[in-house]
């Protein structure tokens, strides 16, 4: 017959064993969640290159046109710095092979774009950067879609949509400045209209999404308001005042969209635990 001491010891042993077993079962789940959280951060950094590529080309064209030269130079430098920092952070991330391949191609295209802005802008270099920025945006979109598939979480699509809104706002502004510089190639105006339509539809999609918070709803309303200011500026002929207004409103809209994308990223992290 067991003594009270032995019985107590056996109880402790069983409880310890059960706790250990539960912890072992929990480790894979926690590991998966942490991996998903890391993937979410990498997703946002890679996808941001859609907007950064267009912002780079937009500010470079602004410098050519003499639009707010000091502010445009700062915007150009900021876009370059953000891109470099993002790739440095991605290099430290453990990515699935299919995603890593896409990121490598994205960096190759982004490096080519970055090399084009070393010298002061000319009509030729602005046109070349505009073309290269679209290659970067395409590579970044492909990368974002690869991340979305790997994430296997519905709300990852919302980050993708919100993040693409950043790029659309910058590409529309870029195209406005290219038109002002008389570098509007075939189909540029049609692209502006298509981008504006996609932007409006995406706002409606985000507003109807089931994942929402008071902060997200507030930022969506701010986004709609800033979009109206931006869209109104785009309707004006590109004189000096209009060019400055498009430059400033596009930056304000980008700030709202950056915050909105980050809010969706936070919501995704909360879903993942």
Q: What would your notes on this structure say?
A:
With 273 residues, the chain is mainly alpha-helical. The protein has one domain. Helix content is 86%, strand content 0%. It has helices at 4-47, 49-65, 69-91, 97-115, 123-151, 154-180, 188-208, 214-234, 240-272. Helix 2 (49-65) packs parallel to helix 6, helix 6 (154-180) runs antiparallel to helix 9 (240-272) and helix 8 runs antiparallel to helix 9 (240-272). It is globular. Mean pLDDT is 86; it is low at 4-9 and 11-34.
Oligomer category = single chain
Query: Compute the gyration radius: what is it?
Result: 24 Å
Number of strands: 0
Q: Spell the H/E element sequence.
A: HHHHHHHHH
Total domain modules: 1
User: What's the pLDDT, averaged over the residues?
Assistant: 86
Strand content: under 5%
